[in-house]
Amino acid sequence: MKEKFIFLLFTAVFFLNTQFNLFQLIPHDKFEYSRLEESETLVIGKLIDSQHGSIFDDGGFTGTFYYDKISGRSAGGKKAYENYLTNVSSPKFYYDPYKSQIGGQAILYSIFDKIFGLDNKTNLLIFRMLNSLALSILLTFFLIWVKRKFGLAAAAVSFVLLLLNYWIFLYGKSTWWCSWVYFMPFIYGLFFFEKYRSAEYRKYIIRFSFLFFVKFWFTGFEFITVFLICSAMPYLYYTFESKASFYFHLIKRHFIITAIPLLLSVAFQLFQFKLLTGNFKEGLNHLAEAYLRRSSGDYSYEKEFAYLNTFKSYHLDIIIRYMGNSFISEDLTQIKIPFAVLISAGIICSILLYRKNRERRLIGATWFSALAPLSWFILFEEHAHIHKHIDFFIWYCPFLILVILLISLTSTSFFKTIK
Predict the structure, then answer these.
(1) Which of 1, 86, 108, 98 is nearest to 40 (CA)?
(2) Contact 321/386 with Cβ under 8 angstroms?
(3) Please, which residues have CB within 8 angstroms of residue 172's CB and are 6 or more apart in sequence?
């Protein structure tokens, strides 16, 4: 009974914070911006396009729906958004598909719209609430795992610290980003290995292949290296051995888990290109071009950030920017508290716990998980350079979530000692 109450309480608080910013933990300007973030207008465009025809018109891709020939992408997207909310149905002048992702989330939204035929504003509210709820439930499941393994106090402290890190929740309701999918295999894996200590790998491969396909369906290959490393952390935490055979099986099993849903996703995306252009070749060329563009270092800083151009060749520009931003709302503290402070606190807590011979496996898993965000900042630097409004989120997949857990364990241990 107590655990059910905790589950409902934590889920409700996370949901209210994500969906309505009830506690004002997210800066007002950022929260309002996230309601009409340009990427979400691609979902709106898809919904309007489906209402004008079939779900797989224009390949079923998300995109910008244009009512005229003079608007740019941003203006056209905002106009489509406004017309969608006011149920204005105007003829389509042009549709510009976004072809780098399946857009599976928008396909499901369109199916929902076709079945139920609700008011557009109601539709959008439901879609956002579902994303908020999914993120809230997954984060709560993580805290339930913490409670069972480390106690209620550690779970409670982790809950408060997570709530203050507004980057986790900023786009939690976004119909485009669907940020809950990045935590899904990681959190499910914690419970899987807790139950199957003997490691039933056939079940592991089948279930995780399905979860990987869900991720590719909803958000394509966005933050792909982050997702892959994040998803492998429960495997490493529960089954790690200092043997060469361990790494061989790790790579083999996760290759299978990744390859099957990846191939299915690419095949579906090529099918979409076939519907859109009449051939598969253009789809292959587009996917290759998108990868090369995202990993390109062909960018430069201007004005007050021009000094970072010196560090470009060493990737220090990206790391400096992403460690220097605040993880807690400046509206709450009036000062900027950089990610570097949170990471430094994690280092100190790791040293203290290690010296007490406590949770060494968790410490190792935590710092190994730092490879997840770093892999993206280094391998996909062009994306990290441009998307500073969202890429701070990947610090939490799951690196900073585990850092917060280490801080919670250290603080609760300290108070127990004093008591």
Answers:
(1) 98
(2) no
(3) 18, 19, 131, 132, 135, 136, 179, 180
In the numeric block, the tokens 């979409």 are attached to: 272
CA 59 from chain centre, in angstroms, equals: 25
Q: What is the 3-state secondary structure (H, E, C) of 312-351?
A: HHHCHHHHHHHHHCECECHHHHCCCCEHHHHHHHHHHHHH
Q: Average pLDDT for consecutive 10-residue bins of the chain (419 residues)?
A: 92 97 87 76 96 95 90 86 90 92 96 96 96 98 97 97 95 95 97 84 94 97 96 94 88 94 95 92 84 71 74 79 90 84 97 95 97 94 86 97 98 80
Helix, strand or coil for residue 94? strand
* CB atoms closer than 10 angstroms to residue 196: 13
Q: How many CA atoms lie within 13 A of 397 on its CB side?
A: 31
Distances 419 to 21, 166, 397, 413 between C-alpha atoms, Å: 36, 32, 34, 10
Q: Minimal CA–CA distance to 375: which of 232, 223, 254, 262? A: 223
Q: pTM score > 0.85 for this model?
A: yes
- Transcribe 179-214 into DSSP letters: GGGGTHHHHHHHHHHHH-TT--HHHHHHHHHHHHHH
Which residue's entry shows tokens 């051939």?
Answer: 279
- The whole-number pLDDT of residue 198 equals 67
What residues does 96 pair with on adjacent strands? 64
210-145-355 Cα angle (round to 5): 120
Quickly list DSSP for 270-285: HHHHHHHHS-SHHHHH
Give the pair of three-digit tokens for residue 269: 């995306």
Q: How far apart are CA 289 and CA 279, in angstroms?
A: 17
Closest CA to 235 of 183, 192, 181, 184: 192
Contact between 394 and 373 (Cβ < 8 Å) = yes
What's the one-letter identity of residue 230? C
- 5 class by beta-carbon count within 10 Å (0-12 exposed, 13-18 middle, 19+ buried): exposed
C-alpha distances (whole Å) from 292 to each of 225, 269, 356 are 15, 18, 47
